[in-house]
Amino acid sequence: MRRLLLCLVLSACSMGTNAPTTISAAIAGVQADLTKVGVVSVSDVQDWSAVQTSAFDANVRALQCAQKTADPVVAMIAGPVTMNLTGSFTQSGSFSVSASASSLTPVFGLQADASRTHAQTLSLPVQFVPLSALPDAEMGRAIGYAGDLIKQRQDVTDRIVSDRDELAAHVRLLSSSYDGGGSSGGVHPFVGMRSK
Predict the structure, then answer these.
(1) What is the pTM of this model?
(2) Whose CB has fewer CB within 10 Å in the chain, the N or C terminal residue?
């Protein structure tokens, strides 16, 4: 009888514990997924390094070859990536031993409740535009990002327009040099992001 009582008490104590997912692990997972996708930046084109220019050009060539056109449709991450994490875990349990006056046999009772809630929301605004419209789409994203600074500082507006014009010239060059040939590169989405 004591063994049964001990087993019931121990089983009530070990109803299962779950290691929570940390915020840093969730964020690192999203960053790793975005890295695997291989996004290519279209922001601040005037400050691109040779590596950034090469990555952009290779992606454009891969898109042109995959779609067999000089002006392919491109996917562009058009705004901030947001993540909403919620989660909870509650656990409760009770154990009782009783005996009635009419019976000498003890009555055992065991009750356990466990509840788990887990939700994850990821918002990734993607815009699909022809390559020729990519400079205007990036300018729209940059204007939205700059917000009220555009009204307060002319240099911000000038920089956005200058970046748009330079990206448009680069896209025209890539479009005019498309010869319809094959490409072995992978296709990746474009992203507008602030340079550090």
Answers:
(1) 0.62
(2) C
